[in-house]
Design brief:
CATH topology of the largest domain: Beta-Lactamase
Largest sheet: 5 strands, antiparallel
Pfam families: HTH_IclR, IclR_C
CATH architecture of the largest domain: 2-Layer Sandwich
Shape: globular
CATH superfamily of the largest domain: GAF domain
Structural class: alpha+beta
Order of helices and strands: HEHHEEHHEEHHHHEEEH
Helix content: 40-55%
Protein name: IclR family transcriptional regulator C-terminal domain-containing protein
Keywords: DNA-binding, Transcription, Transcription regulation
Number of strands: 8
Strand order of the largest sheet: 5-4-8-7-6
InterPro entries: GAF-like_dom_sf (IPR029016), HTH_MetabolicPath_Reg (IPR050707), Tscrpt_reg_IclR_C (IPR014757), Tscrpt_reg_IclR_N (IPR005471), WH-like_DNA-bd_sf (IPR036388), WH_DNA-bd_sf (IPR036390)
Organism: Variovorax ureilyticus
Radius of gyration: 21 Å
Strand content: 15-25%
Length: about 250
């Protein structure tokens, strides 16, 4: 009896995964088709998720993600150990540079910014907390993937091969592995217009004792500032900050 129950619960929770930037609202018919379940089953899932506050009815029998998720996000922020330890350090970086400071995490193979401390002239970012970032573009994703072990990195290489080739990365495994090994050895990465043409970033990984990464910390600024920014100083600031946060977490 437990297996069907677990399977049903997984499918019901799978409803939440059907919402993204291109599908902000769904109907019960959409959900039934996407999950390959009957319409009565789809309505049952919707009813239970409405009761839990994880969905809300918006218009013409369309449903969107519900207010409970906002509350859960509040609790996630308060419980985030990297943010609790890192926030004072991020504010120091902003005070020292005037640039935005961003925390970024990798969850499976999904890269998400988890917090942004605004600088004196906040950058216009297309990505922010909760919006998945491209896996192979930008400074933060580069240092996060560089922290992966060889086996973990090869799984990414195999499962996301078309995407990494489109991103201009080496198409063969030995070269791909060497590319990220070089970033790991450097301990930082500087991107210049890589993800958004008007933005540059300097990122470093906040490392765990086992060599993996808690998160990445970045300083983000307009590419027009590259001519006057002391990149060596920026690298020293961001790597020192990452080391301090990692040491406190350890």
């Amino acid at each position: 009896m437990s297996e069907p129950s677990t399977s049903s619960l997984e499918r019901m929770l799978g409803v939440l995964d059907l919402f993204d930037d291109t599908h902000l609202m769904r109907t019960a018919e959409d959900i039934a088709a996407a999950l390959d379940v009957s319409l009565p089953t789809s309505y049952r899932y919707v009813r239970l998720l409405l009761q839990a506050g994880l969905l809300q009815r918006v218009e013409d029998s369309h449903y969107a993600l519900g207010p409970r998720i906002i509350l859960l996000d509040h609790y996630i922020r308060r419980a985030d150990p990297v943010l609790k330890v890192g926030l004072p350090v991020m504010r120091e970086l902003v005070d020292a540079t005037g640039f935005d400071c961003v925390l970024t995490g990798v969850f499976g193979v999904q890269v998400l910014d988890t917090y942004r401390e605004m600088g004196t002239a906040p950058a216009s970012l297309a990505y922010g907390r909760g919006r998945p970032r491209p896996l192979f573009l930008g400074a933060a994703p580069k240092v996060l993937l560089a922290s992966f072990g060889s086996t973990q990195l090869k799984k990414v290489f195999e499962s996301k091969h078309e995407e990494l080739v489109r991103s201009g990365l080496p198409a063969e495994w030995p070269e791909f592995r060497r590319y990220y090994a070089a970033i790991r050895k450097a301990g930082h990465y500087i991107s210049k217009g890589e993800l958004e043409p008007q933005l540059a970033a300097v990122a470093a990984p906040i490392l765990k004792p086992d060599g993996g990464a808690w998160a990445a910390i970045s300083l983000v600024f307009d590419t027009s500032r590259l001519a006057i920014v002391d990149l060596e100083k920026m690298v020293n600031l961001i790597t020192e900050a990452a080391t301090r946060i990692g040491g406190r977490l350890a």
